Amino acid sequence: MSSKKAPNKKPSARPAQNQKPAPAAAATAEALPPPRKGMGPIQVVRGMRDLLPADQHYWRRVNQLSDEVASSYGFERIDTPLVEETALFVRGVGRSTDIVEKELYSWETPGGENVALRPEGTASAVRAYVQHGMLNLPQPVKLWYTGPMFRYDRPQAGRFRQFFQLGFEVLGDADPVIDAQLIIIGWNYLKALGIDATVRVNSLGTPESRANYKNALVAYFRSKKTKLSEDDKRRLLKNPLRLLDSKDPAIQEMKAEAPQIVDWLDEDSKAHFMRVLEYLDEVGVPYQLDPYLVRGLDYYTKTVFEWYANGEDQELAQSALGGGGRYDGLVEQLGGRPTPAAGFSFGLDRVVSRIKDTQPSSTIGYKSEVFIAQLGDMGRKKALALYEEFRAANIPVCEAFSKSNIKQQMEIANRHGSKWVVVIGQKETLDGTAIIRDMEAGSQEIVDGKKVVHEIKKKLGRITNGE
Ligand code: HAM
Fold first, then answer.
1. Which of 85, 229, 235, 385 is 20 to 30 A from 141 (CA-CA)?
2. Could you read off the pLDDT of 373-399 as tens digits, one per residue?
3. What residues have CB less than 8 Å from 384, skipping those under 6 apart?
4. What count of other Cβ atoms lies within 10 Å of the Cβ of residue 36?
5. Ligand 1 in contact with 165 (CB < 6 A)?
6. What is the residue with the minimal CA distance to atom 13 of ligand 1?
7. Whole-model pTM?
8. CA proximity to 123, closest of 82, 88, 71
9. Which atom belonging to ligand 1 lies closest to the Cα atom of 350?
10. Are 358 and 194 within 8 A, CB to CB?
11. Domains of the chain, with CATH numbers?
12. Ligand 1 binding pocket includes 399 (Cβ within 6 Å)
């Protein structure tokens, strides 16, 4: 990411002790930036976006399913703050990861605390687990969360500076069945959304086997140093595993001959990985072994995995829908007792984008069954009360009370896909009746004004004629 390209000034990720205390007046008018030149409209900040009403039904579907899936697997929801101590991510995610080194939104508060917008949810979940003594609860503790995350990444398709994650974390259990069940949960979640995806799996072993592998990898890439870009040379020094997911074609070519981590795994990690794969085979969840899958966060041990959408689209195929793995050292690293744990998260922006691309909105959109049309002041009053009756009866209903023109109201009813329109005009108000119009058949009937909801319930098959 170059700061030239990005119009916003990059927030500093440097630890608090290197920074001068911020002026106490940071929140006052003098501390605000000068007014912008020109009077053009202010745009959304680069890399951020509005989720507009037209897309909300996708998000509603995804969020409802998150809740259902989490409950059905016995996960309990946790909400942690968007702002945490910067040190949490430096210690948790890793100082030399891209996420911490380049992408953290961090700043010093007027009180001198060094804080950051969370770039992911695992470190916060672990902090909360330790802070609230969840180690003393029956283990494992299963937590899920959803919400915005922030990374000062280079904006591109499927990559935003504010994005949403859905995450599942299981703390306090080392059994490989946990890793397998997390993968099964992800599989079922995507399947329920009609997304055809594949999970790629690998094992990173223990910190020791990983360190040995790192050395072998460094030796291999050093022997090819002349072919490396400056960026990759830096990676080789700081975080050599990251070379494996470099998009550079030269690295892709070199990778084919590079050492593979499976050859460096200790016996326990190997056995653990085999068990995970056996469980997946048992349930019939298809997976792909990917010996070069390393993930971009430092806390992983043993199993790691990533979800990719199947299909022609190369761009999509390169950006994971989600990822996760085991992180047996993180709880201790963040000040708790040694506690094994594993988890994963989906990037919901990418999940929603996939549903939008592959499924016509009509299959998931909100459809109201009934539209209430009104004519005249008295009709409008009756319609307003009738609307509440429909809501109380749990029947999806919509209206256009501010419109008095009946043609305009019918157009809106059509847009909502309402099959039934209830019309209340001046005459109906005086007679104590209402008209129910069948929009598909084009027919209509007059019914008792007190029985409108009952009549509609019959038409929707919610009650039989005898009731
Ligand atoms: P991650 O792979 O960094 O893992 O992120 C998980 C998912 O978040 C990615 O697969 C992607 O779909 C989405 N994502 C990441 N960055 C962006 C972005 N800039 N724009 C849009 N979507 C993005 C983690 O965050 C780990 N905490 C996962 C985990 C949970 N591991 C164990 N437990």
1. 85
2. 999 999 999 999 999 999 999 999 999
3. 401
4. 8
5. yes
6. 347
7. 0.84
8. 88
9. 12
10. yes
11. 53-205+265-358 (3.30.930.10), 370-459 (3.40.50.800)
12. no
